[in-house]
Amino acid sequence: MTMIQLPANYILHFDNLKLAIVTETFPPEINGVAMTLGRLTTLLAEKGIEVSVIAPKRAERMPTSDRSISLFPVPGFPLPKYPELRFGWPAFQNLRREWTRRPPTLVHVATEGPLGWSAAIVARQLDIPLVSSFHTNFHSYSRHYGLGLLQTAALAWLRTFHNKTLRTFVPSHDLMHTLQEKGFHHLRLLARGVDTNAFDPAHRSESLRAEWGATPDTPVILYTGRLAEEKNLPLVVKAYLRIQTKLPDARMVFVGDGPMLGNLRELLPMAVFAGMKTGSALAASYASADLFLFASTTETFGNVVTEAMASALPVLAFDYAAPGRFIQSHLNGLLAPFGDETAFLDKADWLAHYPTKWNSMGLAARSTVLPLSWNTIADSYLNEIRTLALN
After folding, report:
1. What proportions of the chain, in percent to the nearest 5, are helix, strand and coil?
2. Which residue, 155, 17, 15, 23, is CA-closest to 85?
3. Residue 275 backbone zone (phi > 0: left; psi -120 to 50: alpha; other: beta)
4. How many angstroms separate the CA atoms of 207 and 229, rounded?
5. What pTM did the predictor assign?
6. Taking the CB of the first residue and of the last residue of the chain, which one, N or C, has fewer CB atoms within 10 A?
7. DSSP single-letter state for residue 202
């Protein structure tokens, strides 16, 4: 294993820590990476850490009022099939100028695009300690977009990129084991929390259910997230139809947007397509449903799973990432073996036969995730960074 050392005579001064986070996605964008980084950044600032966020420029990304957080916008371009996201162009000159003038204590590259690549090079040139995080299985996504031949090359690129950093933070144990088997080094777990005050069954809304065409007794089945190929949504549709054969009045609600919206409307014209929701509207959507279906096999964590559980929804998902860690079959949800679509549909059949168990399973799901705290996650991150000075 190649050992990566801190620059000679370098000391991490935590009395005045300056952290630079480089990312292609950040709030107000709506995705798991942006949400995670937004939460982490806010909590680090509250702990007295000076944070700068280097991200592609967006008109709606207004400067923060928190003086401990500064935004450093760089030029970007739309990500294919994800027009709401932007890759950052390489920013060698801008970053070299900024970090020479005001060098950060540590650079954290959160995404591996052109911007992150240039930031990693500049950090090494200026002898600034560098860490990274692995948030998105881009190498797995490639097969969903007709780019399967690039999967091996993408994985090799990611391995080279991350192995040149002091630490790579990953959100789950199973992802850590997978990456270790593929030759990634110096990995560390950085789990994700869930806001159990924001996501709470108390936000259930009968008026919202009525908008969905549901009475208080109608079984409402929910999916939230991007409507895209990598989310395995045809299996969600099949699972819903299996449930509907036993519960003919069950309603399917999709909260989100994406390139598969038109296809899903054709497959399930009777479903509710509520569009993208955030904040209290998203929380009410979770709380107003009765069951959550999640068939994706490309997640590094799956924030929507813990958000659904916090909202007292039983979740049917595959056994990996967040579902594998937090769901106990028949206690607080149901798990199918990873990638086994037949088993997934069999679990949907079981749920259709036992709808009276949904409520108790949902309450158990909420109890499971109540201890998850973003503040604990931020402390874990800082503790891990502190160990860099000791190695």
Report:
1. 45, 20, 40
2. 23
3. left
4. 32
5. 0.87
6. N
7. G
C-alpha angle 264/270/271, rounded to 5°? Answer: 55
| 21-50 pLDDT tens trace | 999 999 888 888 899 999 999 999 999 899
Helix (H, G, I), strand (E, B) or coil at 219: coil
In the chain, the N- to C-terminal Cα span, in Å, equals: 15
Q: What tokens appear for 22 in the block?
A: 């480089």
Decide: 131 and 124 in contact? Cβ < 8 Å: no
Alpha-helical segments (H) within the chain: 32-46, 92-101, 114-125, 138-141, 151-163, 173-181, 206-211, 233-246, 261-267, 279-287, 303-310, 321-326, 341-353, 358-369, 374-388
Retrieve residue 213's tokens. 């065409």
Task: DSSP letter for 315, please.
Answer: E
Contacting residues for 1 by C-beta, under 8 A, at least 6 apart: 185
Residue-wise pLDDT for 341-379, tens only, equals: 999 999 999 999 999 999 999 999 999 999 999 999 999
What is the band of 388 on the pLDDT scale with cuts at 50, 70, 90? confident
